[in-house]
Amino acid sequence: MQDRIGSEPEVIVADRQVIVCQGIGSLVSGIPEVKLGSFATDQASLRKALTAVDGKAIVILGVRLTDCDLTQALAMLQKDFSRAMVVVVAEDTEFAFIRTAIKSGANSVCMMSQILVSLPKILGKLVDGHSIVPTEILKRLTNENTDTLTRREHEILSLLVNDLTNFQISARLGLSENTVKYYLKAIYQKLDVNSRGGAIAKYVAGNY
Predict the structure, then answer these.
(1) Fold category of 151-205 in CATH
(2) Which DSSP category does 199 fall into?
(3) Which of 60, 121, 154, 207 has CA atoms 20 to 30 A from the CA of 51?
């Protein structure tokens, strides 16, 4: 019995909000293929939790920890814990992070609105060694209207209009400067411009 338990991947749940970790952890604890490990809210506790895992590890990662955002957390995991499998979970309003997660090599992604149905299937696939992107997310990635600005992109544009720097925008929104640059690149593509001034002009004129 002990051998069987030891072979089950340990799932670390990481998010800046403990209540989110607890909610996801409650779901994970009912999935027989895995065992629930520690919760982490920052990079230090995530490192500590992963270091303590003897066998296989799966990290269920929210889009922000208390001291970093998704891009920074994924970079740390890939650099220092490359053997850990990673599932990124995000709200429907944070879909840009799903694209980031896939581009950054996450093993799977899951929308919070689909988590009750999707997460058990995802973890089952990861246990078998398979990465998976749920069908509903693939459809959204391929069919979404790339010309439509997201809520976050509107927020960033409104701050650009007020002449805030990338650093000031990152501080205001709780994002890294790299993430702000990622959003700006997407905004420029959608507005068909190549500068902050061009983006501001189109946004102020309502041409988006």
Answers:
(1) Arc Repressor Mutant, subunit A (1.10.10)
(2) H
(3) 121
